[in-house]
Amino acid sequence: MDTGAAGNRWVTVPSGRVTLSDRRTRRSWTVEVAAFRLSAFPVTQGWYAEVTGARPSAACGDRLPVEGVSWWDAVRFCNALSVREGLTPAYEVRPGTGSADWDTTADGYRLPTEAEWEHACRAGGTGPRYGPLDEIAWYRGNSADAIHPVGGRRPNTWGLYDMLGNVWDWCWDLYDPEVYGTYRVLRGGGWSDEHWSCRASVRRRSHPTFRIDDVGFRVARPTPGARDPRPA
């Protein structure tokens, strides 16, 4: 683990293979994931305010995960953080088109793909969770109906915190464009969700403009010389 932007910690996630599944189509597919770096915690309100000057969240606290942010807000944060650190932004936002282009050769910050997210969450395991739920996640059964500061539960074996519970994470991917158009993938479950939503394989979807108090995000970066991270 190393320390990067604004003192946030980063985990180098090793390469590997993960199998994804879709409930509607009853299809499963295997993705080869290249090594990449992922923030050890969800983006906090303090980090978000430092980069953007905004505090959109319903709850208030620098160590709380930022929430009330859309997929577009997360994309813009990634670009702003890249510019701030002298890196090449990963995304070209095209106003009025409802879409963004991802330059996979850029060295800047970005959202993880859902394959990267699930691979990172599982941390080499095969079960639905990386430990007993009450030890690793804030969810409906133990959150007292409130969001909690990041890092308050036990991390997975790769040192990633809050991969399950507390806030859902936006991912880069379209959920199911044939049926849901521009809806993007959410992963991980949140502080108000039942236990069955806090599993490594659970996929949720929402419109990229959607904002609510249990959805946030975490950010990724490529490792030097990394190949295109998008699934073939």
Your description of this structure?
This protein is of the alpha+beta class and 232 residues long. The chain has helices spanning 45-52, 71-84, 114-122, 133-136, 177-180; strands spanning 2-3, 9-13, 16-22, 27-33, 36-39, 91-94, 99-102, 168-174, 184-187, 203-206, 215-216, 220-222.
How can the largest sheet be summarized? 4 strands, antiparallel
Estimated radius of gyration: 16 Å
Q: End-to-end distance, in Å?
A: 29 Å
Give, in spatial order, the strands making up the sheet with the most strands. Answer: 1-2-5-12
Mean pLDDT: 93
- Strand segment count: 12
Task: Assign a percent range to the helix content.
Answer: 10-25%
Shape: globular
What is the helix/strand order?
Answer: EEEEEHHEEHHEHEEEE
Parts with pLDDT < 50 across at least 5 consecutive residues: 1-7
Structural class of the helices, strands and pairings?
Answer: alpha+beta
Count up the helices: 5
Strand content: 15-25%
Task: Write the SSE topology.
Elements: E1 2-3, E2 9-13, E3 16-22, E4 27-33, E5 36-39, H1 45-52, H2 71-84, E6 91-94, E7 99-102, H3 114-122, H4 133-136, E8 168-174, H5 177-180, E9 184-187, E10 203-206, E11 215-216, E12 220-222
Parallel strand pairs: 8-11
Antiparallel strand pairs: 1-2, 2-5, 3-4, 5-12, 6-7, 8-9, 9-10
